[in-house]
Amino acid sequence: MYSIFVTLDIEPEYIDRFKEVSLGDAQGAVRDEPGCFTFAINQDEEIPTRFYLYEVYRDEAAFQEHLETPHFKEWLAAANPIFAGPRSKVIMNTVFPSDAGLEKQKPGLLDW
Hints:
The two termini are 24 Å apart. The protein has one domain (2-110): Alpha-Beta Plaits (2-Layer Sandwich), CATH 3.30.70.100. Strands 2-3-1-4 form a four-stranded antiparallel beta sheet, sandwiched between helices. β2 (36-43) and β3 (50-57) form a beta hairpin. By secondary structure, the protein is of the alpha+beta class. Helices cover 38% and strands 27% of the residues. α1 (15-32) packs antiparallel against α3. The protein is built from four helices and four strands.
């Protein structure tokens, strides 16, 4: 599986707005994209303006498809103006859970 870890900082007055628009992108990804297996949004406890996104896709092609979805484009348009600096991204390959394990977990992601 293809995974990414994104670190980004948000202007302090837009933290709630960022959470709101990011939730829409995350939910759209796991609900509407068969190739998205994980989309986690985490907020730094010590630096509340810093967020971490952890996303897992079947492969890079599935990630590239994510970048063309309406929910991602809506997220980017809303989030771009409130970033407080550049984003960083680390590209990884998953080790655990296994690819088969992630495939089996996919239906459970939709039980919000």
